[in-house]
Structure formats: C-alpha cells, structure tokens
Amino acid sequence: MMINKIFNIIVLFVLLMSFSGCEEVIDLKLDDAPSAVVIDGGLSDQNEIQVVKVSTTYKFTENNKFNGAKGAKVVLTSSTGNIYTYAEVSPGIYNSPVFRGRSGVTYTLNVTLNNKTYTASSVMPAKVNLDSLTFKEFSFFGTSNTYIAANYKDPAGIQNQYRYILKAKGVIEEDAVSEDRFDDGNKVANVIFYELNDLVAGDLIDVEFQCIDRNVYKYFFSLNQSEGGGGPPVAPANPPSNFNNGALGVFNAHTSSKKTIVLK
Amino acid sequence: MPYTNRLVLLLFIILFSQLSIAQNKFTVNGTVTDSGTGETLIGASVKLTGKTSGGAVTNSYGFYSVSIPEGNYEASISFIGYKTIKQSITVSKDIRLNLALVEDNQLTEVVISATKRDENVSSPQMGLQKINVREINNVPVLLGERDVLKTLQLLPGIKSAGEGNSGFYVRGGSTDQNLILLDEAPVYNASHLLGFFSTFNSDAIKDVSVYKGGMPAQYGGRLASVLDIKMNDGNRKTYTAEGGLGLISSRVKVEGPIVKDKGSFMISGRRTYLDAFLALSPDSSINGNTLFFYDLNAKANYQLDEKNTLFLSGYFGRDKLGISETFGFNWGNSTVTLRWNHLYSNRLFSNTSLIYSNYNYVIQNFMEENNFEVNSSIKDFNLKQDFEYSLNSKHSIKFGVNAIHHTIAPGKLTASEASSVNETTYENRKGLEAAAYISDEWSVNDNLNLVYGLRLSSFSLLGPGNFKTYDADGNTSSVTAYKSGEFVKNYINLEPRFSASYKINGSSSFKGAYTRNIQNVHLMSNSTSTSPTDLYIMNSNNVKPEIADQVATGYFKNFNDDKYEFSAEVYYKWMQNQIEYRSGTDLRGNGNVEADLLYGDGRAYGIELFLKKRFGKFNGWIGYTWSRTERQFDAINEGKWFYAKQDRTHDLSLVGIYKASTRWTFSSVFVYNTGNAVTYPSGKYQINDRTVFYYTEKNGYRTPSYHRLDVSATLEGKPGKRLQSSWSFGIYNLYNRKNAFSIDFEDNPDNPSQTQVVRTTLFGIIPSVTWNFKF
C-alpha cells in the first residue's frame, strides 16, 4: 500500500505543480442498467451477530441508499460441518445467531433470491493483532498533513492481506487494503491516507484491522484502484467478486482487531 | 496471407532474373548537402534525363546512387526549400558528383513537405508523412515549447493520446505500438512530465518521418507505426550558436566543424526551470523540492575519406522530481549510436550501426522506518547492417540484418536495515530479436512503381530464470528453470511488405499497400494514460508476438502547379494477440504480471483525407480522419467487440500559416475530435456504507467532444545583423474551451446522499512567449 500510495502522491504532486487543473460539476447523461444483485457479507472472529446485506443496484441519479432486497434465503456452512441460517431483520439485512468464525475454516455463503442462488467461499486467515495507532505528519509544499499509522508485526513466511477501516467520529472515512509483498515478517507502520486536518482535538478515530483472504484482498484492491485514489486513473471495471452467477459484492471471512485514538 | 507471400516471392524471381541481363552501365553517385552549413540533405531528388532517364533520392546520410547507361544527361537536383540545380553531365565512366544546394528564402514552404514537388504522387510509398523541422516554429504549441510529436498529431491518421499529451495513436494502434527511433536507437519513453512534453528537442532534429502503413522492410518491431527521427549532424563550415528563452525552459545549441568540410559536431541542451522558482520560496518545505527535466543531444561526424564516414550520436534525458527529504522519483532515456558509412563500390552503400538504448526509473522513499529504493530498467544492445544497392535505373535494392539483445529488469527493491521494507529483486528477463530483410524498389515503367520486400524476424526468450506457464484463469500450471543462455521460447515470423503506385497522369496516382508487422516487446499500462513506471515485458510461454496485417489504398493528386496537394487513404487492419488485463491487476512490483493478462483480437479501419496548400504567403492544411478501433476478448464485455480507448470517430485538424511580411508570421491551429471511448457507471450500490459504481458495457460511453483553437505570431529580428533574434507569442486554447482531462464520479461533499459528476480541465486559455537567438 505504501509504495503504491507514494507513487500516487508523486503523480498528483506533478499534476498539481505543473498546471492548475480546474474542476467543475457537470451534467452527464448516463444509462440506467437493469438492476443486479449485490451481496455484502462479513464474518468475523468475534462472538457476535454476523450480518449479510443483500441489495440491488439502482439509478445513478437517485439519492444514495441501501436498496435492500427482501425475501432472500441466507445460509452459511463451514468446512467443519456447522450450518447457520440467517434471519431477515429489516429489508435486505440478514442476521445470524451469535457465533464466532475460526481461523483456517472455509466458510461458504449461499444466498437465494428470486429462485437464483449465489455462492461464495472465504477462508478465515490466521489472526494478526493491531498493536497500536500512532500519528504521522507529512508536509507537501508548505502544507502539513497528519495521518494515522497502523502498527503491527507481520508473521514471516506467510502471505498476509490486511484491511483497514477508519472511522472518524463514527463515520467510515477510509477503507483500504494492503499485503505483505514488500514487508513480510517485519514490524510495519502502515499509513492510512486519510487527512485528519478537518478534525479537532478530542475527536475519536477508530480503526478496525482485518486479516482477509487473497480473493477478498483482490476485490478491495480493484475497488480502490477503480476509484483512482489520487493516482493515474485506471480504466474502471466491476471488482472481481467471489460470488458466482453474476452477483456483485464480496463475502469476507476475516479476523478483527480494533483500536481507538483521540486526536490531540 | 499466403497469397502475398507468394506474390512477393514471384517478384523476387523477376528481380533476380534481371540481375543476369548485362548492360553497359555506369554509376553517378555522391552526397547532397546544404551549401551554407554542409549539413547533408535527406530525401533530396536527383534526376537524370537523356535518352533514358533515371533517378534516386538521397538516403538518411545524404547519399544517392544512380546506375545509368553511357550518354549525355541533364541532371536536376532538387529539394524543397532549396534552389534546384540543373547541369549537363556526360556519363562515360563512374562519376562522383557531390552537390551543394542553396537555400531558397523566397519560398514560404509549409511545415509538412514531400521531398520534391510531386514526390507524394509519384513515389510508391504511402502512409508516409514528413515534417520539416526548420518550419515547426510557426505552428502554435502549448507554453511555447515546440514539439515535433504534437505537430505530428495534426496530421490525419495520427491522434493525440490526450490533452497536451505527446503520446500518439496511429491508425488504431496504442502508444506502445509506435517504433520511435532517434538516430536508429529506439526511445522507450518519449515523454517528459507524464506526457506533456516530448523528449525531442526540435533544435537538435534534422528530419522526421512517420510511417502509418506500408512500412519499408528495413523497419520492424512495432505494430502501428515507425517514427524515424534524425539528429542534425552539425555545421561543417562555421561555428554557430543558437537558443531560446521560454516560459518553462531554455535551450541552447552549439555546432561547428571539427575539421572544415570533413567533420562537425553538434551539442544541444534544454532544461526546464520551474524548480528555480521553488528555490526562491523562504519555506523549507517548498524550496527543498525538485521538479525539472533536461535533454542533451550530442553528435559528431568525421569523413575519413570519400568512402568512409563515422558518426557518433547520443541522447540523454531525465525527469527529476523530489519532495524534500521525503520522496524522490526520476526517470529517463539514454541512447548512443555509432555508425560507419562505407562505399563498397559506386553502387553498394553500406551502413553499420552499433546502438545502445536504456530507459530506467528510480523511486526513493527517504522516510526512516520504511525507506526504500526501487530500480527498474530496459536495456538494448543492437547491431545493424544495412546495404543499399543500385542495380540499374529500374531497380534499387535494400537488404540487411539486425540483432537486438534486450535486458529487462522489472524491479529491484533495496532498503536499509532499519526499514520495514524487505529487499526484493525480480528476475531479469533477457531476449534476442534477430531479423533479416530484403526489398526492391522497381520502376516498372513511367507509370507503375513497386516496392516489395520481405522481413524475417525471430524472437528468443533467454535464460537464466524460472519461467512460468499460466492457465486461462491465471493459475500457474508449470514452472521450469533455465540456465544462462538457454532458449526458453522461440518465435519466427515472416513479414511481407508490398506497395505500389500507378500514375494516372502527371499529377495524380493510385496507390495500394499490404504490410504485416510483428511486435515482440510490449508495454503494460493499466492506467488510462501512460506513466513512467509502466512495465515492459517480452514474448514468453504465455505472451505471443502481436501481429498486424494492414491493407491500404489511396488516391493522390496535386493541382494548380503542385501548389495544392490532396490525398485520400483508406485502411483496414487486423490485429492478433492483443493484450489487456484482468480488473484489479497490480502492475507495480508484480513478478507474476503475466498471470493477469488476457489475449484477444483487434480491428481498425478508417479513411484519411488531407488537403494542403504548399506554397504562397498563406499556406496550411486540413486533415480529417474517420475511423473505428475495436477489440475482442473472450473474458471482457461477454466476448463482444468493444471500442478500444483510442477509438475516435471524427478527428479534424486545420492549420493556417500567414506570412504577412518579411518579419511577421501569423498562424493558427484548430482541432476537433470525438471523445474517447470510456467506461462510465450505469448504476450504483452500497458496500460497507460506501457508494460503489456499477459498470456494464466496457468503453460504452464517450468523453465529451474535444475542440480547441490556438494562435501564434512570430516576429523575426531585422535581417543582416550578426545576432539574429526572434520573438514568438502564442495563445493556447484561445476561446478557453473546458475540455475534459478526466471525468470523475463521487459523492457530493456537501450532501453525501447524492452523487455528482466532476469534470477536470487541465488547460484553459494559456498565453506564452519565447525569445530565440542565433549567432
């Protein structure tokens, strides 16, 4: 993540320094595609209610919303032989009984909606704990920005993928992923590139640190890449889902480790 | 196309049967130079008229050779922009005839010119455009930086890769499918500052030719085009210096004789100075930053005797960016070419070239706890032997061999002990490209001219290393270890080249061409524009050579005493083994990038119209292209054909130059093109409370159409002074059209429940001024 981000920052820096770009909100006629099924499923190693969200896509011009799909049948099976049936608690939100996922177990999620079944599998990786959060300052051209670094010890000899979900004052502001391709086995301080400058002293910042499997990493990497993230724009595409039958979204069996830091 | 192979073979049989026909022939040969500077002239026409007639065009070294029977002839030597020489010669033995042409200042010649007045009609070559670099000054450009690549983009069939971008698309090809040669050395990354300026400083350039189709057999290695750039040799008569001060860069060039009329040198440099302004800031986080690029071109030549000349030329350019004590990033090309021209006989001209080319980039992170440095490069050693043989007045033959050794270092990551980054080295890849070619230019009769040739090209991927094979899903199916020098994979291809022209009358002709091109080195770029860190890969167990077959036909006409030139060309191109990526491919520091590649087909077709007024106080041209470029990949867009990103339906350029007086010249450029094919969302959904866009058809949308008007004025200093100076004033995007550099979709920051479309415009109206001098 670090190397890519640094490259992106350099590119952005060149563009900004070289020429002053001008941004303007415009009207653009976009097509309305027939709606597609979206499944956003998570399973953590915490003993809690696990949630699967089933929704459908909607028009670009509509207000952002969770377009929940009612009446789906959601069943989770584990490679150890357990079966969990989820209950719909509000349109599109399906809850499991309280249980925890275990590292090394393969979980398969089956979602049946309108007589079509969508299946995805995810293996919960071994857990790596988030040790601490620290502040980090960078200055670019006279303006200095503060960021948060997630500190952890990467286990040697295993391919690990991590996801960082940063909430500022309870709102998700950044959802990034990284892998240990360049820092396997090391103590790592990975900077989460969300500028804290708009916050004031006393504001709370939460970071959830997940260990995720390779396919889930690829899904989020592709999602972030399509959005550019300040780097050279990549031709956008739907991220590669681990669901079959054309469903969008991802099923993510992950470990979870959370820390909170107070802005000084 | 087996028929074409057979046809070419048949033509060679005809050719070699002619070799045995004895004729009492002599040869007239020599070089054509500029009388003022001694600089050789490329593409000057030498015509001998008598009881029979014959002619030749000077080659890249200004050399010509005409084989003709004994007799009296009227020789006519012409080159656009120079006074034609006419003289009588008696041929009773081989004659060495060196000619010096005098510049004709009366002729206000337009920028793009053929070599002689009706060359465009009579030559069998099609798909060729030439640029006269001396005249580029008059075309308005961004920030006053004269740029051959941007001037090229004003021609039909050649499209800009984006706003202010020096990258270009030729007849549906991508930017990496252009073979860019600087004194025969391939230049891998021809742009500075992420594409806004080309690496070619026009001060140092003598000749620019671009082949959009009908590539002669001596060129190979890229699919879409050949851009052949020749550097100035340097003034053989006197020492001169010239230069310019512009808004963003300054240039200086020094040239002169090493030994008068025997050898000369030329050194030309350019550097930007944006960072000089940064240094003025009292803020240490500003004045410690670096941001500049430079180009250095140098060339020397020496004529050992009438039969031997040596040339040494080099190019060194680099971009450097740095944020004080935090990051550093630099990249650049180096090329060196050593050439030896030798006359084996009066008819057999030889050139031997030893060429080195290197492109690399370095990324540095100086932050203590995760400091690192990334190095990546592509390096070529190239040996080339070319012959030109003047068989008789009907046939002129070119043949030769070429071997290129490539070394690609995809990435080496180094870090200090304290860093959290581990040192990693990706295996270097080595490859050998070898080729042999022969072609014949045959004047069948006064009306019919043919050029036909064959190029045999091979590519071998060499060890050492571990080489993987991937299945269709990108999973490794086998890994094999090879030792140094072992052959991992070989590809051999035959590339027929054929073009013909038929003169209907003195001023118009029909032409046709068929060309096959092969590409063995591929640039991987998944961003919508090119970037300095794009990855080069070679053919392998997984990647096959890209193949393009192009057929083209055209009508060429001059009228009003060659004052106007018109051409219409139609082309159709099939492409095989084209490369795309799976979504989410990470190209940076990826040792297994081939696992993420997809292979498919392409097709491109279009019509190009060109009307030019070549002489007079007012001159200029109109270029119009209608075209389609499509791709088909089983794993993309449900296997249906989709528009490639370089697809643009309409592309129009208008260029006008008006020489108002001996001192004032005004010019203007207008461009219009359909927007690029892009992928925009057709819906949206939520993942973990964030809005995600839903994409359906690949490249199913268009960016808004692009248009722009530029103007410029040049004021020449009073003539006759020792110090000649001129001022150029320009305005880019005169009516401040807000062209889209990018279109982004995002949540409205003021109202996160809504999504908005944001257009980024890079260049609004931009004035510029440049002062040029010469003494």
Automatic annotation (TrEMBL), chain B:
Q: Which residues form the TonB-dependent receptor plug domain?
A: 145-222
Membrane topology term: Multi-pass membrane protein
| Subcellular location field | Cell outer membrane
| Matching InterPro entries | Beta-barrel_TonB (IPR000531), Beta-barrel_TonB_sf (IPR036942), CarboxyPept-like_regulatory (IPR008969), Plug_dom (IPR012910), Plug_dom_sf (IPR037066), TonB-dep_rcpt-like (IPR039426)
Does Transmembrane count among this protein's keywords?
A: yes
Q: Does the record bear Signal in its keywords?
A: yes
Q: Which residues form the TonB-dependent receptor-like beta-barrel domain?
A: 294-734
A single Gene Ontology CC annotation of this entry is: cell outer membrane
The UniProt GO MF terms for this protein read: siderophore uptake transmembrane transporter activity
> Which chain regions cross the lipid bilayer?
none
SUPFAM superfamilies given for it? Carboxypeptidase regulatory domain-like, Porins
What keywords are annotated for this sequence in UniProt? Cell outer membrane, Membrane, Receptor, Signal, TonB box, Transmembrane, Transmembrane beta strand, Transport
BP terms from Gene Ontology: siderophore transmembrane transport
- Which range is the signal sequence, renumbered to this chain? 1-22
- Its chief place of residence is membrane
Question: Pfam families from the entry?
Answer: CarbopepD_reg_2 (PF13715), Plug (PF07715), TonB_dep_Rec_b-barrel (PF00593)
Protein family (similarity comment): Belongs to the TonB-dependent receptor family.
Indicate what this protein is called per its UniProt record.
TonB-dependent receptor
Organism of origin: Pedobacter frigoris
